[in-house]
Amino acid sequence: MSGFHLPEGVIYLDGNSLGALPAGVPGRLADVVEREWGEGLIRSWNDARWMELPARIADRIAPLVGVRGEDVHVGESTSVSLFKTMVAAARLRPDRTVLVVEPGTFPTDGYIAAGVADLLGLELRWCDPADPTAALGDDVALLSLTHVDFRSGAMFDLPTITAAAHAAGALMQWDLCHSAGAVPVDLTAADADFAVGCTYKYLNGGPGSPAYTWINPRIQGQVRNPITGWIGHSAPFAMARDFDAAPGMRGWATGTPPVLALSALEAALEAFDGVSVADLRTRSLELTDLFIAQLDERVTGIEIVTPREHARRGSQVSFRHPQAYGIVQALIARGVIGDFRDPDIARFGFAPLYLTTDDVRAAVDHLVAVLENEEHLDPAYAERNAVT
Amino acid sequence: MSGFHLPEGVIYLDGNSLGALPAGVPGRLADVVEREWGEGLIRSWNDARWMELPARIADRIAPLVGVRGEDVHVGESTSVSLFKTMVAAARLRPDRTVLVVEPGTFPTDGYIAAGVADLLGLELRWCDPADPTAALGDDVALLSLTHVDFRSGAMFDLPTITAAAHAAGALMQWDLCHSAGAVPVDLTAADADFAVGCTYKYLNGGPGSPAYTWINPRIQGQVRNPITGWIGHSAPFAMARDFDAAPGMRGWATGTPPVLALSALEAALEAFDGVSVADLRTRSLELTDLFIAQLDERVTGIEIVTPREHARRGSQVSFRHPQAYGIVQALIARGVIGDFRDPDIARFGFAPLYLTTDDVRAAVDHLVAVLENEEHLDPAYAERNAVT
């Protein structure tokens, strides 16, 4: 708990959207700005080892998703990262013409797939969320799924679906934005092909922090980075005319590393020092089990949409309610921060690094009070009039 | 001068590679991290107006390049930005198959063009730097040039070349990385089609800060963003299944805005408050004229490769010398920071916001001393053994 800065009087159940501020970040960022940039200036690319930031961060993320750091690239947004892997996947299966995405996925995954399909003359096929592998066929180049659903918190069976994709000759990509850092992920054991994840949710890297990309070393020698920027060159500072990709994931890089954002992220990941993924999962399930049990016992008129089965649950709990928007706003006014998703979902994330069972009980106390006092019907909270 | 933090004893002639630290950045970034992120948490997307950062920054960059803020997008790296515009340009001219780039361009421009050509089945044609328009023809979709050459500091005639490209039916893109913020640019008067620029050189946004993209409003309704991420959606928070591009440059956005980097950049751009581009140019030419005159008068054995004609000069001066690497290293040891570019170029940038004529004279004093004392031949400086 001491590893995070959390405001007084707030119970923060939105770490699945924007992680809380790790205690080490402000000092690190001030040092990077004032000493490394201000005093070191251009010399800091060498002296402060700015160029190595992506690789150092990769080494910290890798154990959270069951891979080697050298197989991870850090940089660009989640959306750009997905574009790169989706284009590469399509080019690895030139005899296949279909990208399969789940219609309830976080929207950017579907939007990017549609853009890639349009650019390369492919077909985007929506699968049934209840059985995504039914959409597989010998025309499918890539199945791309979000591991944990951002609305419901439902988790796909990563190894089984990966095996099914491979059995159908397709490549398998996992979007880990809503799982890594709170849920065990073992990409190596599942032998998936691609994974992309953001770092500002359970990894606490700060608003809009850079995403990461993993590519199975089994296929790294075959994939081609479509956005061949200078940092992916085998010798960027030779400034040669012609592009020559660096080997491995160094060749997956594109632009100049975003040093300020990467420095904040590196400091943020120190919060995972000495913490095992298994322990995080134990704590996460303890928190979500307790929240579900408290809802069952104390709250009526809601429909919990998050699976009760552990194997199918991420680290959030969501329920439907016709006034979900008003409920979330009334809770925020009380200092209990969750969020709302169209049209009627109230969503609560349980970041196992900084939440306690006392937080869970107190949050439900507030929810019970909101409903009893009908605070969610108060026009100040009930009317949707802005982005949330 | 008071608007920047510069270390004691340093004359910084590398602001064309990484701009110095504007005085307002550390405080702003600390506030964003500790108060907006730490205290505001997810609420700051609304309360701290994080979502509006790109548009606010666009409004600050626009007058430096002669355009309207609403026609500028801020986000992603220069390399990703170039990829997006090059793909879009190729799709605007489907009956043409050639992308033209200058072989001495900053390498990422050529690398990205090669990648786009490979992806879309186009041809990459290298033009003659002395006459880039000679490569135009009825097969050319896009001519993409860097306004100021990163090695020599030579500047292309932006309006004349733009007109020639249009006369040949091609689209015209300008890379402004090495000009905007120090050299007047009027994209509107020239009626160019696309422009991309980084913000960490003369705009002082910090290491790896996000790039900007301008698209002429004349063609915004026709171009399609190839990387259709959720922030470019007309209603991102509706989280609809299907992509529907926002109008204008809002539809050019891709990923979640990188808030920390954007906040630093916004604070950095305040250094341009009350400064006219014309005054910057006057100061820049005063500095480079003086440096050239001092070199002519006091230094032998070098070949100045930067044009002496004002209309053909950016805001840097470069010279060739067989021991250019040793000279640059020996100068750095004396606190005069320039940089070296393969194979024999010593390069000195003159950021008009924070350099004085006294700095120029003192820098040449050091250069004269380095050569007289043969410090550039000292093995400690003369041997190249690392990236620079």
From TrEMBL, chains A, B:
It comes from the Bacteria. Catalyzes the cleavage of L-kynurenine (L-Kyn) and L-3-hydroxykynurenine (L-3OHKyn) into anthranilic acid (AA) and 3-hydroxyanthranilic acid (3-OHAA), respectively. It catalyses: L-kynurenine + H2O = anthranilate + L-alanine + H(+); 3-hydroxy-L-kynurenine + H2O = 3-hydroxyanthranilate + L-alanine + H(+). It comes from Nocardioides marmorisolisilvae. The gene is kynU. This is Kynureninase. Belongs to the kynureninase family. Keywords: Hydrolase, Pyridine nucleotide biosynthesis, Pyridoxal phosphate. GO terms for cellular component: cytoplasm. Its cofactor is pyridoxal 5'-phosphate. Homodimer. GO terms for molecular function: kynureninase activity; pyridoxal phosphate binding. Pathway: Amino-acid degradation; L-kynurenine degradation; L-alanine and anthranilate from L-kynurenine: step 1/1; Cofactor biosynthesis; NAD(+) biosynthesis; quinolinate from L-kynurenine: step 2/3. One of its GO terms (biological process) is anthranilate metabolic process. Its EC number is 3.7.1.3. InterPro entries: Kynureninase, PyrdxlP-dep_Trfase, PyrdxlP-dep_Trfase_major, PyrdxlP-dep_Trfase_small.
